[in-house]
Amino acid sequence: MVKHLLSMQDLSSSEINAILDEAAELKEKLQKGKPHELLKGKTLGMIFEKPSLRTRVTFETGMTQLGGHAIYLAPADIQLGERESVPDVARNLSRWVDVVMARLFKHDIIVELARYSSVTVINGLTNLHHPCQTLSDLLTIREHKGKLNGLKIAWIGDGNNVCNSLLLGCTLVGTNISVACPHGYEPPADILKQARDNAKKSGAKVELTTDPKQAVDGADVIYTDVWVSMGQEKEARERMKAFKDYQVNAQLLKGAKPDSIVMHCLPARRGQEITDDVIDGPHSVVWDQAENRMHAQKALLVSLLT
After folding, report:
1. So what's the architecture of 132-287 in CATH?
2. pLDDT tens profile 59-93
3. 115-153, pLDDT tens digit by residue?
4. Could you list the active site residues?
5. Burial of 173 (0-12, 13-18, 19+ CB in 10 A)
6. Rounded alpha-carbon distances, angstroms, from residue 41 to 49, 104, 136, 152
7. Please, where in the chain does CATH 3.40.50.1370 lie?
8. Which fold has domain 8-130+290-305?
9. Could you give the CA distance from residue 178 to residue 185 in angstroms, rounded to a whole number?
C-alpha cells in the first residue's frame, strides 16, 4: 500500500523519531563528504501553485544528493484542476515519477491528488498543513535541546498551517505547546481536538491563550510566523491591527527560559512579527532550521521510498 504524507497525523511517534534519526545521519554524512545515493534512479515530481525559495531548493538539492532527480512543475505547466483534472494529473504522474511533492493552496486538492495517485504524495504546503516544516522544526529542536519530550514550545501569532502541523507533531512526540493567538485567529477546532487527543496518549500539554506572555512563560522554544500569509493580502490592514501585540522581541523573550531558542519558518517580515535583534540574535536558530528542511526531507523521502 502506498504511503502518503499529507499531514503530521499520517505519522506515528516512532516514525517521526525514525525520520529524525535518519535525517541526523544523512546530515552527518553530507558534512563528512560521504556519498549517500540511497535514491539513485528515482525521480521526484514537484508541483508548485505557490512560489517558494526553501521548498524548491531543499527538495531539489536533497534529491540530487540522494542520487535521484527532481522535476519542477510551475503553476503554468499544469494548471491543476483547470487545464487538466486532478485525478488525470495524478494518474499521469504516477506513470512517470516515483514520488510527487505538491505545494498548493487548497488542502482538498492534495487529498484528491493522493487518492488517485499510485505513487507517494508529499504535502510541501497547503493552506491547512505544512508537515515538512514540522519535521525540520523537530529536528532543529532536538539538535539544540537534545530531546523533544517534556519541552515547552510557545507559538506566537496566527493559528495557521505551520501552527497546525506543529500542534500535531509536538503532541505526537510528547512536546508541550502553548499557542497565543488573537481572538478569531485560533487554529481550527478539529486540529486542536486532534492535538489534545494525541496529547492524552503522549503526555504532552496543549494550551490556547490570547496572551503571548503567558505562552512564553518558561518556554524552551519561541516560534512565530508572518501575520499575513500568501493569499491573505486583502486582509493585511485588519491583520496588522489584530497582531500588533504579538511581536517576538527582546522584551517578550525575557519571560522564556534563559537558554530558549527562537524559530521562524521564513520568509520573515522583520519589524512585524519579529525584530531584527531577535532573529539575528544569540537565541535564534532560524538558519539551522532552514538548513534542516533539506535534511529532514531527504530522510522523509528515504523512509517513504525504501
Report:
1. 3-Layer(aba) Sandwich (3.40)
2. 999 999 999 999 999 988 888 878 899 999 999 99
3. 999 999 999 999 999 999 999 999 999 999 999 999 999
4. 103, 130, 133, 225, 265, 293
5. buried
6. 26, 26, 25, 41
7. 8-130+290-305, 132-287
8. Rossmann fold (3.40.50)
9. 14
